[in-house]
Amino acid sequence: MDSPFKTPSKRSMSQRLPSSGSSSPFTPKRSRIKRISSEGYDSVSRILAFDESNSCSPTRRKLDFLSFSQNSLLHNENERIQCEQTTPVKIEQSNFEKKILLSPSIKVNPKRFNISEQDKNTIKSSSSKRSGSTPSKKLKLLNVIAGCKKITSFFKPIQERPDSIKKDVGNHFSPAKHKIKEENMDSTIENCIKSDKQIDSPNKNDNINNIQVPTPKIFSVSSTYINEQKTSPRKKVMKSPLSNKTKMKDVAGQVTPSKIGSINNSPITSPRILEYLDNKVDISGGDTYSRFIKSIVLRAEIFCFGKEDIMKKIESATNDELKIYGRLIARKHGWIRSNGPDGLQKYKELNLCDNFDSVLESLATKQLINTDVTSCELNILLNILKTQELRELQKTFNIKLSSSKIQTKPEMIKSFINLVKNQRTFCGNSTSNLKERVKNIIGYCLKLSDTSRNDIMSCLIYESYPYFSGEEKDRFRDCFTKFSMVEKKLLKFPTFEAKRVSINFSSKDSFEMYRIALNLRHEVQLLIEQKDHENAILVLCIIFENFKSAVCDESIIESLSNIPTYLRKYSAISVYAHTLFKNITILKKCTSNVNLAKEVLEFLLKHKEFSMSKKAHLHIELAKVFELQYKQLDLAANVILDGLKDDNITELDRQILSKRAVMYANRKVRKLDNELKNELLSVASKPGKEPPSTTISGKIISVKEKGSSGRKQVYSKMTENGDCHYMSVEELALSHYKSQGFLNGLHDEGQLIKSMFLLCFWEIIYSSYTPHVLFISPYQDCPLDWRTRHFYKIREEQIKNRMAELKKMNVVQICDILKNYCDEYCDTQSVVNWKYMNVDNLPLCQTLLECVGIEVFLAIGDQILKDGRIYLHGMPDLVVWDVSKHKCMFVEVKGPNDKLSEKQYSWLLKLMEFGANVEVCHVVGNGGKNNNC
Fold first, then answer.
1. What is the pTM of this model?
2. I want to staple 698 with a disulfide (CB 3.0 to 4.6 A). Which of 129, 164, 191, 715 is the partner?
3. Helix axes 387-396, 409-422, angle to 10 degrees
4. Could you report the per-residue pLDDT of 516-560, keeping only the tens digit for each?
5. 260 close to 503: Cβ distance less than 8 angstroms
6. Within 10 A of 30 (CB to CB), how many other CB atoms are there?
C-alpha cells in the first residue's frame, strides 16, 4: 500500500513563538502517541512527522533518522511493513465497512478541514488527551522551543542511492575548517554612536536623547493608557490648530546613511544618571516580576525621558511590594475586588509576602495603587458590582423592575444613572449617597494608579520597541515571558554587540508621539474587533489629522532625516501611515465623508517615503476608488500609469501594477481612449514565461454542514488493501509525485532550504557594521535592517566573499559547516527555523542539497538576502527530489478555484531563472457529497 504522507499542519498566529522571525506557520503540533496494541489496530494510533516516543515530557529527545543510504533501506521486511501500517490514524466506524485513514495534518487540526462532525468526534474521542488544566502561554512557548525535532521523510524511499552517495552520510560530518574572520571595529564609531563604556560622564552622553524641540501639534483620543475605560472618541478629541505647512525635506532615502550625526547638544546635569549609566543600580532580589519591573524602569534613557518620578517610586519600593505590583500590572487595567475567584485574595494565599495588607497600604502611600473607589465615575463604579448585587441595590432604592423581561447589566446601570439625575435629596448629593452604598457592598477594592501605570507602560514600550511586533494588550506578557525564560536559561538569543542608544527618539516629545500613535492604533484594532466601525472611523480621522500635522512639522521631518531609513518604522509617522493603509477598507465605509478614503490615499501617496513597501498597493487602492466609487476609469488608469513610471518600485510591484494596467487597457465596456491605452501597454511589463503545469484529479469529500464554509477541502484516496485515506490537497500532490519517481518530498514552503542557507551566513547576519545601528536590545532575534534592502547594501562585500567561498565547496563541506553551526547555535532565537534545521536532519539536508545543486541553492539564498521583504515568503509549497537521478523539483499546489498570487508567480520565475525545475500542480476535484471513497 502507498505510504501515507506527513505534512506539517498550518497553525494560527497565536500558536507561534512570539517575535521570532524564524518561526514557521507550517510547523507541526506536538502530540502524544498511543502504542499500537498487539491484538491489531483496534486502538487509535497517532504518529506524526515530529513525534518521538510515548512520553509527553517537554524535554527534548533525539529520534533515529530515517537514513537514505542503502544500508538503512534494507531493514527487516516485517518491520518496514509494520512501520508503514502504524503511521496513519485508523478510525473504526460502525456504519462503514472500510477503515478511514486520516493524514497527520487532518488529525492534528480537524477543524480546518471540511469533514463531518461524526469524524471530528471520533478523532476527538480517540486521541490522547492532555491531563490537567489548559497550559499557560509560557508552557506553550517552552513546548515550541523544545520542539526542534528531526524531520522524518514523507516518503519511504525504496530506491538505491548511487555509489557516490551510498555511504552513511552521518560519517561525512567532520569539524568545519572554515571560519569567518571578525571585522575590526572602525574608529569612526566614536564620532556617531557612544557605547556603554563611552558614556561614563556627563560630557559623554551623546546616546541619551534630551534635545528639547517644539511640542508637536497632535490630536489624542485620551491621555491615559488604551486599556482604561473608554468613552466616545468624539468627546475625547482635543482640538488645536494645525501647524503651518512648511516645505518638507526629502526623506525618501532608499540609501542607508553612512554616518549618523550627533543627536545631543546639551549635557545632563543630574548626577543620579551616572548610577544608571554605570549599571550600579541593583535589580537583583525579589522574584521575577520585581526584577522585570526594575529592569525596564531603572534605565538611564528613561531618566532622560522625564520619568524620574516613577523611577524614584520603583527604586524605593521593597521587593515584596514589587512582587504584588508586578502581578497587578500584568492584569487587565481596572478595579480589583478583594474577594472572588480572581480577586486580591488569591495573591494573599500565595504567601508572596509576610504582611499582605501592609504591602497594599505602602503601595497606596507611594501612589502606585488607588483604593478610593468613590473617585471614579458612577457608571464605572456600578459596573464593578455583579448582576445579583445590582438587583438587590435596585430593591433598596425602590427602582421598579420590568416584569416583561430580565434586565441586562447595562440596563440596570442606566436605571441608576437616571435615578440620580431625577432624584433630589435634603441630606446631600444623590450621586454621593449612591456611591457610598456601592462602596459598602464592594468592600476593599483597588486599581493601579493611572499615572504610574502609564509611566511604566511607556518605559516598557521604550525597552521593547526594537523586538516587539504584536498588539499592545500583549506587550507586557510577551516581554515578561522572554525576560523570565532568559533568566532561567530556557531561552537564548544570538550574541551580538548591542548599542544602548536612543537614536530613534530625538526628544521626549518624539517618544510621546510614538506612544500615542501605538495606543491609537490599538484602539482602532479593538473597535474593529467589536465591529464598531463608526467609532473606528472617528479614531482613524484623528490618526489622519495627526499624520498630516506631523509631516508638516519641519522639526519632525528633520529628526527623521538624521536616522537610517530602516529605523523610521519606529516613528509615530510610520505608525500612522501603516494604520491608515491597513484600515482603508473601513474608511471606504464612511458615510459622513464619502471622499475620506480618496483623501487618505492621495496624502499617503504624496508622502510615500513613509510607506515604501506599500507603494504599489497604494496606487492600486486609489485606482479602485476612482474606478468603482467615482466611475472614472481614465483617472484610475492614470494612477496606475504614475506608479509604473516610478523608477524606485520593485520588480514585484511592477508586475502587480502591470497586471492592473493590462486589465484596464483590455476593458470592453467604458473603454479607455487609444492614447492612454497605448501608453499603459508601453510601460507595462511584458508577461513572463509561464511555469510548467500539470493537472491531477482527486475525489473531494464535501460536507454541507453549518460552519463548514471556509474550511480546507479533504480528498480521499483508495489504498491497495481497500482502506480510504483522507488527505489534504498538498498530500494528494505528494502522492502524485511519488508515483512519478520523486520518492522524497517535503511540504514546508521552502523552510528547510532557506534555513540551511541562512545558517551558512550566521556570522555575517549577527555581526556589527559600523557606524550602522543594528542591535539595540539583547532580545532581538534579527538585526534591525532585516528584511530590507539595506541589509544587503551594508554587508555586500562580506556576502559576496562568503558566496565565493561556498561556491568552491562541495556538498559534504557545506554540510560540515551546517553541523558546526547547529552544534553551536541550535535553539537560539534567530532567523533560522530550528524545527527543520538541526543536527538530526543533516542527512536529509545533504540528500536535498545533492539534488538541488549548489548553484541553485546559493542563488535562492542570494535573492532572499537582497530583498527579504518579498522573497522570505512565497516559495512553492512542495520540494520533491529523486536521489538516484539527482533530480529535484519545486511544486506550487493549487486546488480548485485557486490562483497563483503575484509573489508565488515571482518566485516561480526566479527559480526558473536560476535553473531549477518548477511546476504548478492544479488539483481538480471530482466526486462526492458523502464520506465514502
1. 0.76
2. 715
3. 30
4. 999 999 999 999 999 999 999 999 999 999 999 999 999 888 888
5. yes
6. 17
